[in-house]
Amino acid sequence: MTPLNPRPLGRLFAGLSLLLAAGTALADYTWNFPTPVTPIARDTLHIHNEFMVIITVLFVVVFSIMVYSMIKHRKSTGVEPATFTGPTGAFQWFWVLVPFGILLFIDFVLMGIPAFHAVIEMEDTRTKADMVLKVTGLQWKWQYEYPDSGIKFISTMSTPREQIEGKAAKGENYLLEVDNEVVLPVGKKVRVLLTSTDVIHTWWVPQFGVKRDAIPGFLRETWVRIEEPGVYRGQCAELCGKDHGFMPVVVRAVPEAEYVAWVDKKKTEMAAAAAGSDRAWTKDELMAAGKAAYEKNCAACHQAEGQGLPPAFPALAGSKIVTGPLLSPEGKLIPDSHVDRVLNGKTGTAMQAFKATLSDADLAAIITYERNAFGNNKGDMIQPAQIKALR
Amino acid sequence: MNTATHTLDPHAGHAHHPTGVLRWLTTTNHKDIGTMYLTFSLLMFFLGGAMILAVRAELFQPGLQLMKPEFFNQLIGVHALVMIFAALMPAATGFANWMIPLMIGAPDMALPRLNNWGFWLLPPAALLLTMPFILAIFGIGDGAVATGWTLYAPLSVQGGIGVDFAIFSIHILGISSIMGSINIIATLLNMRAPGMTLMKMPLFCWGWLVTAVLLIITLPVLAGGVTMLLTDRHFGTHFFNAAGGGDPILFQHLFWFFGHPEVYILLLPVWGLMPHVLSTFTRKPIYGHTAQVYGFIAIGVLGLIVWAHHFMTAGLPVPALLYFMYSTMAISLPLAVLFFCWIATMWRGAMSFETPMLFAIGFIVLFGIAGLTGLVLADVAADAQYHHSYFVVAHFHYALFAGGIMGVMTGVYYWLPKWTGHMYSEKLGKLHFWLTVISFNFTFMPQFFLGLAGMPRRIPDYALQFTEFNAISTVGAFVLGLSQLLFAWNIWRCVKGGDKATDKVWEGSNGLEWELSSPPPYHSWDTQPVIKSTP
After folding, report:
1. Among A374-388, B213-227, B499-513, where is mean pLDDT lowest?
2. Check: CATH 1.10.760.10 for A277-390?
3. Which CATH architecture has domain A131-161+175-258?
4. Does this complex have an ipTM over 0.85?
5. Contacts of B312 (CB under 8 A, 6+ apart)
6. Does residue B298 lie in a domain region?
7. Which of A30, A213, A309 is the closest to B315 by Cβ?
8. pLDDT tens-digit map of A112-162
């Protein structure tokens, strides 16, 4: 009886070697950390390389001894087995203890001392920091704030759904591209403060050599000093729910002058958005803006047609909450109403308090859109100015 | 080791027990219960394996082809829980049940009824864990726990009914493990044959003694942690909610206070088994018996005080980072004692390479890679880069597959002739070994490089630069998974028949368990043996 048909197995191995050959032909993957662009990343790469050499040497030395023994001390060579069960005499004891002395030295001197210095440097977030970047993790996007200049925006993955589902060719930066990149000046020490509004996320850009958790209700910090202009890509590294794999981090490092120009541009944009909440919008304007904002902020869970993914993510089409009253007759917020949900979220669920991250105009547009799209046809609308008053 | 008296009991081999299903439901016999544990473990090994093959199939190419991210997240977490709690731990308990009484000359475990209960809690626990998958098909709930096996709050507070099912499943599994541990400690401390002092006790028993103590210390902490999670979810407490004065990181402390010793809980029984196998196939006594006993104890103690190295990126204060880094590095010393003793046991022996010996050597080499990469992971600065990446995934599969599962396979091949009275097929066993070792490395070696290149773990889809290594890993995983069918087939054949095994089974075997017949009578060591000479 042959338990294994050798032919499919042969095919598998043939396939495997083909894959390997294909792998060597495409040279865009790496065997080590990506090129470091911050002092920490350079340090980490250096330490990592050193450690890899140390453990490889340990591995080779220890297992050479074992392999030598496996070749020399086999029954088939007719050797008589020895009977010793431990070291005897000072000489043997000495040679038994030497490897442990060496290991102690490797652990706490060879590896321990550089590791100590690296930790101290890595955790020194405050000394001579030039600026602060505040990063907030949200399911499933990042919000960036520049406290010095008052800039604040959300950064969401921009890879189209069709590419993920295999209906379109995948782009060069598949899954690692966003609508709003974080822009940072080259050569400045940036203190990065991290927090989250819902679950734990982890902000990670491999080329920066830092990875730090964003924890709801707490501030964590780390720092970067980018030495080379360029675009650096990473992603969330802590499982944070459904779209954990789809919340990339993209940082564009630019020279100082370019950075200043970008700050001015962003400030102008912010001012335009703020002005939006004071003027009266037409319903068509709100619906158009609402559709765009809904697809960016809401559709991941509630889906493009508002059908949701019950039970975790309820449907909005025909929802009692969405089709309920807008505001109380006095224009006040009704608890657990549609507006309340969008503004303040629902604790214990993935529904977050969107008033923390979206502008008045976006909130008003989304609410108006949800009440009138998906066959809800409520016919009412809410103005950005009303949202502003409710904050 | 000699036995002085071994009188023939007229009832030896006469089993007074019900037959059929009732026998297995009511049995208090350590051999029956051991067999049930091992069978359950093998079934769960295939269940957990099937889950991860679905995951690997999804990861074969970039893009979402087979499943939604929600379902992907359920598979990875339940795979881990099944493999750890339902495959590896029951396998070790099965070994303990079968072998500890035989090795120490006891007629059975100290608490046979507790033993039966301990086993029969497992199937309902496994059912609870996996039932949400089935419920979801009927439109109830949104599937199994989707938080990864670590159940980190607040993600687990937010999760669906799968989390509640997992919490209750963990409670039941925990009760089962604690009862098993109490039983093993009671047996080892009270039922050893006269003359077998603690220091003369076989190393497998020592490995298990330390394991049992670790389980009793740490499992209540996990049970407490998940209970706090339960009350946060349903009863308005705020242990892990910062808005209510709680702290999400508290959950990580509670979880890993259990979770890190758990690694040693899974590995200590295997470390205890290795010297027996090496001594048997080198025909040479175990080197450093006492040193290994102290090594086990030292690893147990150190294992209890290093937990926070599992979340060094969570923003711990610098002194804590330094403490957890250096204490973790210190574990390399007792671990090196074990490696030293294993290789010294082989040195100047007369080796032959039957399947258990091949698995033992494969274990030592691959577990060596796990240990060495663990040493670099301890370094806080480098860890910032490795953490949450595929580097860690590769590292702990070298520890838990090559260390844990291959260690269990060593034990199965080593003891199967004793249990069944038949020899397994050496040819199939060796084929199984080589396929496993080669495909294992094809599966997990590329994951080290994926992690270094920056691929986070637990993502259902990935950027294009990770494609080649993922494809290799998936092919390796399928070969690895299918090779395990050979293992099941070989066991099945061995149970059904095959060449008759001698009592000693192996030329170089040594110890009380090899003095009994193969298979041993249903009730063995009715008369206690007396240990005269030193082992």
Report:
1. A374-388
2. yes
3. Sandwich (2.60)
4. yes
5. B321, B324, B325, B380, B383, B384, B387
6. yes
7. A213
8. 999 999 999 999 988 889 999 999 999 999 999 999 999 999 999 999 999
